[in-house]
Amino acid sequence: MTELIVGTKKGLFVLEGEPGDGFEIQTRTFEGQPVDYALHDTRSGRFLATVTSPFYGPKIFYTDDPAGEWEQAEGVALPEGGEQALERIWVIRAGEADGVIYAGGDPGVLFESHDGGASWEINAGLWEQPSRPEWQPGGGGLCLHSIATWPGDPDRVAVAISAAGMWLTEDGGRTWRRGNEGIRPRYLPEEALQNENAGRCVHHVERAPRQPERLFMQFHGGVYRSDDAGESWTAIGDGLPSDFGFPLMVDPADPDSAFVIPLVADMDRVTPEGRVRVYETRDAGANWSARGDGLPAEHAYLTVLRQAFDRRGEGDGLELYFGATSGDLFGSGDAGATWSTVATRLPPVFSVSAS
Amino acid sequence: MTVSAGSSSSGAQEQRLTVVCLHGPLRKLAGNRAQHELEGATVVDLVRALEARYPEIAGWILDERGRIRRHINIFVAGERAGEHVTVGKGDRVEVLPAITGGSR
Question: What is the CATH class of A2-354?
């Protein structure tokens, strides 16, 4: 049984089912509220959700039963007395150490929990970066949206901030350094490329678990691969109908694999040619193949957001799921070879997490 | 009501109890009660007094900067008020979500 935790503009949905056999909605909660991200941490059994009430601000909630009561987590706030307020929590990721969970948000902030998500503290090393006043927000704000842990090594983490680029730590988050070599933003003039504070609008980053030095990146115009743990990047977007998009996923069994869902361009954020297709590489970006069997193929202008794509399993058993702002949710039980509709007419989908 | 020049004047002015009325989910966070008698000379003093009594409500009305959240309205004696508005004797304070917050 696969469980999908779906964050939407109007609440959190929990669906259960089998790929190809249909899914059913088991729970809807946080009715009417924007749920930016939610997941089921299978290590602890705990569900976590980030909710950004337009009235009361961003909060993280947790529970062992998504249909029951949710508790508000403590410590999800910026230091008091400053000039900024927390705008949104974009993502939650399980860490490598027991009980450790990370959360990333706007304005370019990383939180850590050491008790499974009940209480949080800000990562001071990133918060106190001297260059922070020069960081530029992307269209969605100064959002820390990608957190790539290193299997077996809790000290090594990479995070991505739109548009402050990649940041790497090898000492558990005490110190951070940039990792943007080789990224060529087409929206910057040539002379601005030397300015490390000029916007590097990373959209999504995933690490290949079996080869942790390898990361894949969807950029704001460009798809990249790193083979040196995020120090430098090589463009691999040739062969895609567009190298603009937001979500990206990998097959944990295959370090040469990556899946992206291209959109036309930054000024036209819909699926190209009115067709919904996932593009797959199995040779680290040298070639890309369309995977659209079972997906809408005519007059389908969907927008898939950066957290709305997830996987379960690996290899031949890899399941892939993604949702769109149209409220449609799609799934594949055979690594993207064939797809089926999981749900329709949900509120706009912000995030999908499979477990 | 008047606007105080300082950020807080709780220690400088005569203390009095003011009725603060909460609406929406704020009530649940404040002991499932709508009305609270609190001591404070300004709006921010009253919210801080509420937070001291009910720590769970911290962050729901004021953000980390000490500002009223953008889509929260606070009315003092029927007039929309900022953080540093002084609360007069007999003024009633209402805290409620603004109609502007539902666009997302």
Answer: mainly beta
Residues of B in contact with A55 (CB under 8 A): 24, 69, 71-72, 97-98, 101
Q: Nearest-CA neighbor of A161 among A218, A128, A201, A127?
A: A201
Q: Which residue does chain B place closest to A81, by CA atoms?
A: B65
Cβ under 8 Å to B: A residues 182-241 = none
Tens of pLDDT along A66-84? 999 999 999 999 999 899 9
Residue B65, CB half-sphere, CA atoms under 13 Å: how many? 12
Nearest to B64 among A53, A72, A82 (CB): A82
Whether CATH 3.10.20.30 fits B2-93: yes
Q: DSSP state, A155?
A: E
CA-CA distance, A324 to B39, in Å (whole number)? 49
Per-residue pLDDT reduced to its tens digit, A329-344:
999 999 999 999 999 9
**Residue B3 scores a pLDDT above 60:** no
| Every domain of chain A and the residues it spans | 2-354
B55 at A interface, C-beta within 8 A: no
Q: Where are the domains of chain B?
A: 2-93
pTM reported for the whole predicted model = 0.93
Instruction: Please write the tens of the pLDDT for every residue from B8-22.
Output: 444 444 567 999 999
